[in-house]
Fold each of these.
Amino acid sequence: MNPLREGLLKERIPEAQVLVIFGISGDLTKRKLMPALYTLARERLLPAAFAVVGVSRTDWESTEAFREDMRQACNRFARRRPVDEALWASFAKNLHYVSGEFDQAECYGKLKSALETLDKELGIPGNRLYYFATPPSTFPLIVDRLKDCKLVSRAYEPWTRTRVIVEKPFGRDLESARELNRRLKLAFREPQIYRIDHYLGKETVQNMLAFRFGNGIFEPLWNERHVEHVQITAAESVGVEGRGGYFEEAGILRDMVQNHLFQVLCLTTMEPPVALDSDSVRDEKVKLLRSLRPIAPERIDASVVRAQYAAGHVLGQSVPGYRQEPGVDPGSVRETYVALRLYIDNWRWGNVPIFLRTAKRMPKKVTTISIKFRDAPHLLFRSNGHGNSVANILTIRVQPDEGIALHFGSKIPGPTMDLAPVNMEFRYGTSFGREPPEAYERLILDAMLGESTLFIRDDETEASWGFISRILETWQGQKRRDIPLYPAGTWGPPESDDLIADTGAAWSQP
Amino acid sequence: MSAAASERITLGQGEPVDLAGVESAFSALWRQAGEQFAGNNESTVVRACLWNLVAYLPGPGADPQQVARLERLLADITQAVPSRVIRLQPRAAGLAPQGAEVQAWVATHCMAGQSGGGTVCAEEVTLAGYGEDGASHFPPLVRALRVPDLPVALLWLHGLPPKGRLVGQLMQMTDRMLVDSHFMTSAGALIALRDLIRGVAAMGDLGWMRLTPMRYLIAKLFDPPGHGDNLSRLERIEVETTPDGLNEGFLLLGWLLSRAGYKEFKAVDLGGSEQRFRWQVRRGNTSFPIDLFTRPGYSAYDYDGILRLSIMGGGERYAMEQVDEEHVSLESSHHTQSRVALHGWEDAELIISALQVTGTDRIYVEALAVAAGLMDTEAWNR
């Protein structure tokens, strides 16, 4: 026990360290990681001694050419752009790369030498944060090589910190998730592993904890006595964006529900954690996932609707159907839309239906959580023949236009007692006068700090895959030759309306 | 922060306004802002406000550099923390315009919204109080001008707030007070600060917050299993500071002793040296010496604060020494690092982070109590 540590953990100053990105030439690095790092530098949130070493098969002409490539990426994708040249100059001098094949020991020898030089030059005590921004198939290979070259250690080191960020997907079913966890743990202890789900880095998703557990007025209503149903929608207007081959293998159930939607579901419905430390929060999430009522194979079709987009129009553009996308089998039955009706078997939620919906090629990109509260027990204003009841819905807009809206009924000004729906709105942009940080900014900073609350623990991945795998196995056993279609630019197939109409509800129109 | 400063457009701040008409003057500025930004694509002008920031500025005869520093700080803070800033500016009684004890100016600072939310503007009112009578108007004016239902932060960053009715009244309406013990140069300032902290809902001290990166590294020396226990078996502590960093030295000692559970100490007379202090610390049947001294005339680089710390405990030695402005060396019997980077924060960043937490840092309160206790012994008063 070190009494000097007391009170220090809440300070958000990362220790001096080197971030090693495997896959530095990839899309994720250019679109998300490098812009996030640049913004962190802009906001002076990076440690005084900090460097990035990228590892990639790509070989640039020179370090300067590599840095220019990264500058262009930030100029395209950073929150504040174009980049501030003076700031970029100071940030870029700590960007380095090592080229080589991930399976070659030589690559790791070069990496080790580069890291030792940086340690010496910058005064970094050997702290490393590895980021696997590569296809999941390479993770075990990279882990093995890092271990062989003694670039990682499972042993507790009081002086140095070694951590790893792992990008999704964490497996493609329960079995492969377990195998991935096993391989990672050959080189790292679980507290060193940071499984990233960028949804957890979104300010509005984190705000769910603040909203629910930091206010006294909502939590008493957050249960089966007052909530009629919950809807979580994650809609994308884009199609598979050239990733037809990947999507054919994955499908949207794996790509979105197992990770993003289940994380949002957890934060929306879990019990209050005893503290805000990483294990307390994640314990509650695991409890929630384990409380999901299993869907019997013969009930899957009644509880899970899958569909695929056909050609249509999205945001003023004609777009092809999924089967016409490059890399997609013309007879594919892979789902690009999925809607689920779930129940949580615990005291809080009883028989409250929880609806999840996610899809490609919907009318717009939007992610919302809607809590529909039960109607007033006595419809007083219906009796006079003038008014009606108005649904009370709390909507949390995760993206875009982040905020919270409460819909309720209000008297229409005038001599009659008619009610009309009105909104009470909170918007991040206008209330705080500044935009929320990008998810990757928050998550990379947290990993550098060793704060793992917003990352996914091994038992979380296994609990969520346990549920999803049962659906996947049933679908596989059905050997369907066709799948319902929905025109691109619509909110999904009629079957999904039936799914929710069974309970007397309707999908929200976000 | 300086990059963002160029994007700020200020409206107002010309002629003084009638004290009863401050809110009307703001309304006029809002209309002006609405017209001025009406041509933008995002034409909405949004008033953003999270805090009432009451800044007490130095009075007549203040060091111009200090005044300029505070002005820069305020500009930087308000860009990150949307606020209504109420600047309290004491002025010499002789400068008062005829018949006026207090004058007011209003301004609105506008910036392009960062999330597509139009133009975001924040308000600033400057109150100039002429002489003591003028300053006595400050508390009721703050009460009247604060945005209702938003917290009040009182920024007193240029020295020790004096005891008295004015400060007491301002503290009463304050949810968070921010001070900077580094600039409290009077003898025994930390004793007064310890007493002051009891009268305010919450306090943040920039002098303490600047120590945080160093505290991280010192804590790290005691991370290996078993070494934390050596803090309960201390044999000697030495702290060396720059001449102007003495308060930081006291706070660092206060932190170490309070965390390790030492509360009894007695000053040792070293024979009149003003820059060297020694105490004998007792716990149970054992006692050990601690020394705090400054390095006279030290100005190797632009740094003020702790230069060296040496701790003996449980038969082991732990040391940290500043090697340049941004690096320290760390040393213990089991590990040596000759150059470890030290993360430095700008003062505006410290203030912004202080506004984001609630309550007073308990570790600080305990460290300050011990630091003030050390000051309160014969060593300081001899």
Amino acid sequence: MARDLLSPEVRERIARLDVMAQGLVEGPISGQHKSPFQGFSVEFAQHREYTWGDELRHIDWKVFARTDRYFVKQYEEETNLAATFVVDASESMAYQGERAHCSKYEVAATLTAGLSFLLTRRQDTCGLVLFDDTVRLRTPHSAHPAQLRLMVKTLAEAELLGEHGQPNVLGPLAEELPRRGVVVIASDLFFEPEAFLEGLRHLRHRGHEVICFHTLDPDELDFPFDETTRFEGLEGLPHLLAEPRSLRAGYLEALRAFQAKVQEGCQRAGADYVLVDTSVHPGQTLARYLNLRKQRSHRRG
Amino acid sequence: MGGWSLLNSPLLWAAGLIAVPILIHLFNRRQFKVVRWGAMDFLLQASKENKRKVKIQHLLVLLLRCLAIILLALLLARPAISSAGLGFLPGVEDQVERIVILDDSGSLAYRSGRTTAFSRSKRILKRFVEDLARERPRDSLVVIRASTPNQPERLEAPGSEETQRFLERLATYEPGSSSLDLPRLIESVLGDTPPAGKKTVVYVISDMRRRDWQGNEGEIPRRVAEALRASGRTADGQLRFLGVDTGGEGTRNLGIVGIEPVDKLAMAGLPYEVRVRIRNYGQADVAQVPIYLETRDATGSGGRVPLPPIASIKAGAEAVVVHRTTFLSAGPQALSFQLGGDSLPLDDSRHLALRVQEELQALLVEGERGETPLSGDAALLALALAPPGDALSGVEPRIVPEADLAGEDLDTYDSIVLCNLKAWPSDRRAELERFVRQGGGLAIFLGSRVDARNYQSVLYRDGEGLLPVSLGDEVEAEAEDKRPSLAPPEGNHPLTAIFGGERNPFLSRVRANRWRQISVDPAKDPLTTTIMKLQDEAQTPILLEKSFGKGRVLLFNTSANNAWSSWPRNPSWPIVAQDLVRLLAPPAHRGLVLACNEPLQVPLDPGRFETQAKLQLPGDRQARELFAAPVEGAPLPQIRFMDTSKAGVYRLSTRLRKGGDVVSLLAANLDASEGDLTPAQTPAFIGGLESAGLESVQASFVSGDDQTELLRVTDGTRAELWRLILRIMVVVLLIEQVLAWFAAHHLPPRRSPEVSS
């Protein structure tokens, strides 16, 4: 029924996102049977029988010695991971260059949907926050199977709007989230980085794991324009008629400075920074990231 | 342009292509792609930081492209620079003083081929002025013509309107009747301007004829050297002298070089003979040369008749044509002889103006009137001059008593004879002297009334006056048989022709009763000659002659009647009397023939004439008005006209106060030597300058034709600059490409690692 209320365009977007998420799960991250995220509590809660993919370090060897059967320890709240997906739905996220697979928003939405799929499969809760210059929409956290569908629908229906501004999202979110979890940010971060990093540090201070998918189009990364171009600013920014070749160096310098600042800020705050190039399939990006997380956790282990 | 010029200046239009990059630039600004851009902040930041830099870069690239196009256009236009154009460099001449002497004498009208030497000269000068305006605008230029030596034309700013007006005037100049007086021209133009330390170049554009450039025994180069030295510009390297030869190869030319009256007087009804000299200047004999005579009287009537052609004239020789004509009536007449025409028409005609008279007017001033008709002091002379009868002697004597002398206008007479005059009025002394000085004749017969003191003080004036010799005391023959006769004359004098021959019957029959003691002092009387003497012990002169100005004075140391000698009763007396009056009369052409450019000056007695006169020039239909004006040192006002450059017959008309016009014809002739086209030996001229001590002056000669560029000759050739411009253009294009590359440089993205934590 909900589908009947949707416009054909929106329905197409939902179907598309569905497929992408599905493909992502069945494709690059198909090997991820587990949630890539683990619980934060170290208090032993109970044993459960070992399944393929559980980390060997969680096998309770005493129990094996006693029973000759493999059991893993479960910790408190391990099964209560709450993931909050903060997705940028501002106008700038609509940009899609010639080399991109899809728009930045679609990539962000696909990453969100894919990760949500993994999490909801393990009964971890997922929530969604859409923002532009302010929080536009929040879905409550839920582990219900319908949660993914709801999130996909919400993502697909969202209109990319908004004036250029300084969204204050992360700080209030850090206050509102009841317990520690994972906050996944998917945005082009085209706003003042300091305020964003402040919010990020706030989240980290509250114990959340933060992952920042910095989503950019290859055009924004390379600035390949040659001919005289009229750049029409989105989100209410002014237009500019320019010779791109003469601005290329300056633009790239500014962009890289910005990106470096964000990256450094994330690193300092202990958040994961992932530069997402929309010319790369989101599945590849996600798979690469998840493998990296796995390797990192093995090194720690 | 100060030494710069464009050899293909029309192609400079290519510089208009400079509009192309500008139009492309403007066109591109209107054609653009539209991109809805999210990362606007970074773009705006880059634009703000680079705005000025970008603008400058774009402007620089655009300017370089425009410069490249301009250089291309310049390359096509083939710029060139002469050494003069490097004047801005230290050590190179800043300003040069340039003098051009343009020879416009008559010989420049010589035509060889389709053009005359003067046409070539004008073309060369025009090109020089234009080159100077373009390449050396700061140089000063003075142009002076041979015909106007006192009117140099100074062009301080070649290229200005003043120069344009000069070029317009130059187109109208024609060779005239003047000669090239090179030393005078140099003095005139260089003497006026003090040397300013600049280099001076003197160009003389001439046909290089020997008469103008060599003169007698190297006189011309010597005088030129003096003039140059006097200008103060002969320091080492300061002065350059360049002769430009526009004369053709040919020297073939016939010219009338003179008309010489054989008969001194032109009397109506009597034949008048002239000799016309024609010279063949060429290298080949000529035959059957046509010659014409044109006559004209005061009314302008006359005609042109062919004379018998001249049979032949050898190369380098003269032929003489004797022509006799009879004037039927008295009055002004002009004879113009003309050849058939050749390459130099200016010397093919020559003119003679003269006064034809019915009778000679002789004033006989009588000291004492006799009691009988033939006893007066002048009676026998008058009888001899105009014997009774039907035959006309051609002389009209007028006896005027001494007491009535005051009322006589001496200028109306051809000759004046004083017969036993007691004294000449001192207040009329100057008038009498002027009469003789201007060509009139005076004869003085002595007698007992003569006041020697008056003659000494008024007429002799210690040798400065009219009287040929100082008068001594009177001497009387001791006895009748002791009266001396005339001695045979020495030499050939017109008055003594009757006494020629060894057994002359007249000499012994003329006996002197009284005479004065006189002797000629060579120191005081250098112009006095003794024509006849008495056969007395002292060999006393009885007839003496003195030249005075253009005229002469004859002193008879006897009386004009029988009182002092028997001469008046001698058969020779009438002959002598007639010859005397003819000798005393001025030539028919006296004061009526000028050289071209010689001022025309005619005294006008305000008592008889009105001061206004009219003068008609040769070839002109209209007469111009002139006014008599006082002239310093002259007793009478004068009609003066300075521009007699035109050869031919001038007609002067003056009006008598009592009514009626008096017309005079005057002839002006070209200097006959202008027809001599023998080329000068230019090395001789240079040698002459060096001999005169002017080795420091760089003198040279070049041949002038339609291709001659004087500025190239003196200032060096031009160098083309296309190679230099091509190199500059290549450098400009390289810089433009490098700059354009930098402006468009696309930095490869340096992306951070995808994931970091």
Amino acid sequence: MASREELSDFLASVERRAFKQAQFAVRDADAALDIVQDAMMKLAENYGDRPSAELPPLFTRILQNVIHDFFRRQKVRSTWITLFSALTGKDEEDDSDPLETLEAASGSEGAESAADKVERSQVVAIIEEEVARLPARQREAFLMRYWEDMDVAETAAVMGCSEGSVKTHCSRATHALARALRARGITL
Amino acid sequence: MNENEFGYRVRQALNEATERLDYTTTYRLEKARSAALARQRAPGPATIRLPARQTAGVPSFETRSGNSWLRGLGLVTPLVALIVGFIGIYQWQEERRISELADLDFAVLLDEVPIGAYADKGFSVLLQGETDEL
């Protein structure tokens, strides 16, 4: 059974990776932080009494579910927004400030890193960008296998697919990532 | 470079990226962690379920062996009471039957019974009535 300290240590060890994974998926730092907080709370509330060894796969699964829930909610929201904007006409659209979009884009991590003068930082930022650009399933499989250190069976269990699919996703992700990085002049 | 090696190098880069998170993000992650820990499901005794008959009158710190002993006693006691009851009823019926036979023998020996009565089906009833009068 995980004590409070053990759970705290576990969360501290995974929170940054979880944030990055969520950010790769949703491409928004605030939303990613909300997702990580939601996943942490669900783990503590529902599985806080589980042994420490069971926490990593549980947390990974919860995190993936929360990310998927985010996309589901976003889809519903965008449907309603499309519906309302169709009903209200084009006058509403004029209220939005195009500069806000530009500011958000320039404030993103990728842009900040591009402005960074340290070469390594630039490389890391580019790798992050390319990882974020991978198709969702490929990225999930790749990150779970190579970042979370999960084996094929564990990854398949969390993703709800066969082990063969995990291998295929990983292989495609690796080749796509290597190709994209090479195109940007980076060879690992 | 094979797939594993490539994955390992990407992993290194991603780990490096997590180390460079800005203060606001790390602070918010820390707050999120504290909030989650405050909601941690309470571990331990709250999740143990005991049947009511075990806890009634028994201290909650009773050991498992003590509980099993009490459970055994609770099962054996009514069984013993039932067996004793059956033996008691059997004994009482035996004594009653012997007493009835003794009364009959007594009446026959005193010659208070007409000869025809021996063939009568209600003979025993008559004997009973006469015995009560005595």
Amino acid sequence: MSRVVADEPGYVLHSAHYKETSVILSLFTLNHGVVQLIAKGARRPKSPLKSTLQIFRPLLVNWVGSGDLKTLIGAETASSFYLNALPSSGLAYCSGLYINELLTRLLPRGGPSEEIFSAYVTAISELFSTAQVEPALRRFEMAFLRELGALPDFEYDLDTGAAIEPSRFYRMHHHAGFVRADEQSRGALPGKHIIDCCTLDFNDAGSRRSAKIIARTLIDNQLQGRALNSREMIRKLMEYKHG
Amino acid sequence: MSFSPSIVNLVNSLRVLPGVGQKSAQRMALHLLERDRSGALALANSLVMAMESVKRCQSCRTFSDTDICPLCENSRRDSRKLCVVETPSDLFAVESVGQYDGKFFVLMGHLSPIEGIGPDEIGIDQLMQRVKEGEVEEVILATNPTVEGEATAHFIADLLGSSSILVTRLAHGIPIGGELGYTDGGTLAHAFQGRKPL
Ligand SMILES: [Zn+2]
């Protein structure tokens, strides 16, 4: 018997045209992880689903089916979403697309997670309401990596077991933690930045820079050689903006 | 019922057309064979000609027989205005209104990193080059009112941010003949943001 799921909170990560009038959605849900859904007739000119099934929009979704591809039977916008305007900067959009790509590439292995869902909701609303996208991105990346079980030990030196000290320098070791390093050596990070990363404190510009390097290294390790296209997009945006 | 190999081949070929499944393809094939062989030959010819000679305009990226399309060549069009659209069919839609007298740039899509469509695929460098050449004074961003279309518009607007070029976006709002009560919230929110003094 086919199972019906009703009023499931979710966000469209990506939608692809399917045949003349339908779309296949990749939906990030609270209780079912990333689900593939077919939305029949969603591209017909008068279909109300057309405007509902947009990315970054909180939805309540109904579907039926037991296989890999479920059938959408209804979707509506959740809550007071309309009060929040869409962002007005290319960087905010690109950052949101980056998070969607991250989930698409890495989440299926992680399965459903309330923590990641809640981090996503927070990240999207932060990205769309602030000019500072980096802290929001780093907080999401760290929460996501934690749920994937991919966070290193931020508190203790892997070699000695001693607490990481703010004034000493360290380097990442096997993506598992940090060991002491020479200040001048390649990849050396100040202990303070590592501690800030642990406490998600990104007020300091140096800590933001280091957190970006740490997150990138860990994510690359998870991607195992697969590319993240949205990174290239953000790089291009920066390149044009700064000369 | 089994068809001869040529007919099977024709039916399969017809299925490349959008919206054409097995049944309609069979109907089309039999219709052409029974009633309109000369029409079918003309169609075959046009297909070969179009597929072999239509390329992308080097200036605006739309489909064209020539290196530079007639619209780009037309000196009566205002080169100071550049309208950026996602697809050639969007260009046709704007043209059919007959009100716009500027030129176009066709992205051939929108940014979609998950599908591997980034700035290079939608010709961003070419667009920036075109703008840098100096004639353009206004860039009209007419990408679709989807979130991806918005993202693409804002991406381009950000790239042009440091220049002196006027960047405008098509207004979106309530359709003519529409009713507020039946308008979806997103459209209504956009219409509110874009309200104008009377
Ligand atoms: Zn042209």
